[in-house]
Every structure is written in C-alpha cells, then in structure tokens.
Amino acid sequence: MTARLPVTRALAALVEHATGRPCGTGELPRVQGKSGWEPAVAPYTILDSLPAEFSGPPLWDWHADVAWSYQVTSVGERGDQVEWLADRVRAGVVGRTDGRWTHDLRVPDARVIDRELTYDAGGDPSVSAAGAIVSYVQRFTITVTPA
C-alpha cells in the first residue's frame, strides 16, 4: 500500500502550482515574510485528509491500491474570490487537456491511477458569522498503486 504523506505533499504542491496561491496542510498556510513565517493573506487553500478506501490484496501486501480522500477548502474575503480559487483547484486536480491530466501529480514510489472530484460546494460558499471570511469546499479522491 502506498503511504499517504507523499500523496498529501504532492497534492498540496499541485494545488499551489495550479492556483498560484498558498496551500496549508491541515492548517492556515504560512509564507515567508520580513519577520519570518507569517500567516498567508487570503485567498488561500487548506488541504485536509479524509478517511480512505482500500482495494486489492490485504493491507499487509504493499501491492494494494489505495484511494486517499482529501478536502480542499478555498478561503477568501468574498464569494467571487473563493469561486475563482475553487475553479482553479478543480481545473488543477481533475482538469484534462487533449485526454490527459492538465497537471502532473507525481508521487514517489507510486503511480496515480485515478483522480475524482467527489463533492463540490456548487457555488454555495459558507460565510463566517463575522462575514469577513468566505470558504468553498471541494473533496477529491486520489487513487494510487505502488510503482
């Protein structure tokens, strides 16, 4: 079975590359600032790990396929801002050009065999009680097999 951490790191890097915005793994992303590492300014994304599904041989067999699930939350100050960011996330993770993935998702010692968008907030961003932060949720499943 392929370890999750390399998939998580590869997906976070892909989201950052596709959006041009910072992506935190399980937390607010931090960027290098004048006084060290500082919280990123909106808009940004947060990548969270979700429960996984397994198929193939028993888990003790390193040849088992695994479908790792993730949630990408686009965070911004306005609804149009997070929809724009969510569009870039969607295009980056599952977008195709000429029958191939638009962006490579390279995972060490594994081969990505499928990418699927399993949930999209559908243009219904959630707004905080203060109204200053807007978020848009998408869930993806990345299926990998040992290389």
Write structural notes for this entry.
The longest helix has 16 residues, at 4-19. By secondary structure, this protein is of the alpha+beta class. Helices cover 22% and strands 44% of the residues. Strand 6 (96-97) and strand 7 form a beta hairpin. The protein has helices at residues 4-19, 79-94; strands at 23-25, 30-33, 36-39, 44-55, 65-76, 96-97, 100-101, 110-120, 126-127, 134-146. The strands form 3 sheets. Strands 1, 4, 5, 8, 9 and 10 form a 6-stranded mixed sheet that branches. Strands 2-3 form a two-stranded antiparallel sheet. It has 2 helices and 10 strands.
What would the keywords be for this entry?
single chain; two-stranded antiparallel ribbon; six-stranded mixed β-sheet; alpha+beta; 10 strands; 147 residues
Task: Give the terminus-to-terminus CA distance.
Answer: 10 Å
Strand-residue fraction? 35-45%
The helical percent reads 10-25%
What is the tally of helical segments? 2
Gist of the model:
By secondary structure, the chain is α+β, with helices and mostly antiparallel strands. It has helices spanning 4-19, 79-94; strands at residues 23-25, 30-33, 36-39, 44-55, 65-76, 96-97, 100-101, 110-120, 126-127, 134-146.
Helix and strand layout, with pairings?
Layout: H1 4-19, E1 23-25, E2 30-33, E3 36-39, E4 44-55, E5 65-76, H2 79-94, E6 96-97, E7 100-101, E8 110-120, E9 126-127, E10 134-146
Parallel strand pairs: 1-4
Antiparallel strand pairs: 2-3, 4-5, 5-10, 6-7, 8-10, 9-10
Helix pairs in contact: 1-2
